[in-house]
Amino acid sequence: PDLPPILAIETSCDDTAAAVWADGRLASSVVAGQRVHEGFGGVVPEHASRAHERLIVPTIEAALAEAGLGMADLGAVAVTVGPGLAGSLLVGLSAAKGIALGRGLPLLGVNHLEGHVYSVMIEEPRPSLPFLCLTVSGGHTLLTLVREGFAHEELGRTRDDAAGEAFDKVAKLLGLPYPGGPHIDRLAAEGDAAFLDLPSPRLGPKGRRGDALFDLSFSGIKTAVRYWIADLPEADRVGIVERHRADVAASFQRVVVESLVEGVRQAVEETGVRAVAVVGGVSANSGLRRAVTEAGAADGFDVFVPDLQHSVDNAAMIAVTAAYKWAAGETSDLSVGATPSLAL
Ligand code: KG4
Ligand code: ZN
């Protein structure tokens, strides 16, 4: 639609991001990764909010410059309101409110998860609604049916860890840096996927137990890797783990990818919806992209994945979601707050 430029801000976790949506397309997208968490094996919330505070203004300025626009050209400001870390969300919210208030612009609050879902709308080819959406990120793993009017019908989810969390925890067990997903992905390509026999995360109707169409549990697989390591002869434990890193990575990635893709195939079969989006940080995984594309070709459904840089957290997905919301007349009150546990 023909809307004035939207500036979008995303600070829900450990990436400070800003993007501009103008003339019906992405005009710029900047992600300032925070390097402050590397030595900690995970995100330290207090460090994240302080880093956002330091990076937010330069990131917004960079996004505007890249779009060739100034503050005066903006028509609206969009911002992630949740889910995420409270202190991190508040930095983005405060910046967005300051701009909206100062320039008299409408504010568009966006759900981070809805942003991931709409990340397949940033570029062509875009799915038409309704479509099935597999959201696999560091904090969430769920399958939804996306309908007109920003309706998301949940078909199932993980009961414990998110897929990305499982990647990160197994990577940590293997002594890899945080976030471990990309490292597992890279190592899996050169490992033997039959090395470890790991339990399938599937609990659904055709899985071991559970009743939802897409019911998953990732905690058992992480525990199985931990037991494998614990059972190794102590004298050479570190050496064996190091020699078999790629094999464990490949074995782990295989069962995770299989469980996700099998769940998707079954959902396609049961709903008859033949468009599938795969979004969120884990959708950057090369094994998952390949497997879901092959399943689509075999079963006859269309697969939509965001560009790699839009799989992981970014503000472009917040900008495009805001464009759809604004076009539908949905704006937020300036009193809107952060909702750390906001659901889709
Ligand atoms: O969507 P995202 O950037 O942040 C959240 O909203 O959680 O997802 C981050 C997650 C991390 O767990 C990270 O390890 C995982 O996405 N990830 C990957 C890959 N790239 C990022 N997991 C597997 N393979 C990848 N290539
Ligand atoms: Zn995310």
Descriptive report:
The chain contains eleven helices and ten strands. With 344 residues, it is of the alpha/beta class. The model has no long low-confidence stretch (mean pLDDT 94). The site of 5'-O-[(R)-(carboxyoxy)(hydroxy)phosphoryl]adenosine has 19 residues, from helix 4 and helix 5. InterPro entries: ATPase_NBD, Gcp-like_dom, KAE1/TsaD, TsaD. It catalyses: L-threonylcarbamoyladenylate + adenosine(37) in tRNA = N(6)-L-threonylcarbamoyladenosine(37) in tRNA + AMP + H(+). Belongs to the KAE1 / TsaD family. It is found in: Cytoplasm.
What is this structure's SSE topology?
Blueprint: E1 6-10, E2 15-22, E3 25-33, H1 45-67, E4 76-82, H2 86-103, E5 107-111, H3 112-118, E6 131-136, E7 141-147, E8 151-157, H4 163-173, H5 181-188, H6 219-230, H7 237-243, H8 245-271, E9 275-279, H9 286-299, E10 302-304, H10 308-311, H11 316-327
Parallel strand pairs: 1-4, 4-5, 6-9, 9-10
Antiparallel strand pairs: 1-2, 2-3, 6-7, 7-8
The structure holds 5'-O-[(R)-(carboxyoxy)(hydroxy)phosphoryl]adenosine and zinc ion.
Zinc ion is lined by residues 112, 116, 137, 280-281, 313.
CATH homologous superfamily identity of the largest domain: ATPase, nucleotide binding domain
The arrangement of helices and strands along the chain is EEEHEHEHEEEHHHHHEHEHH
Mean pLDDT: 94
Tally of distinct domains:
2
Percent of sequence in beta strands: 15-25%
Order of strands, widest sheet:
3-2-1-4-5
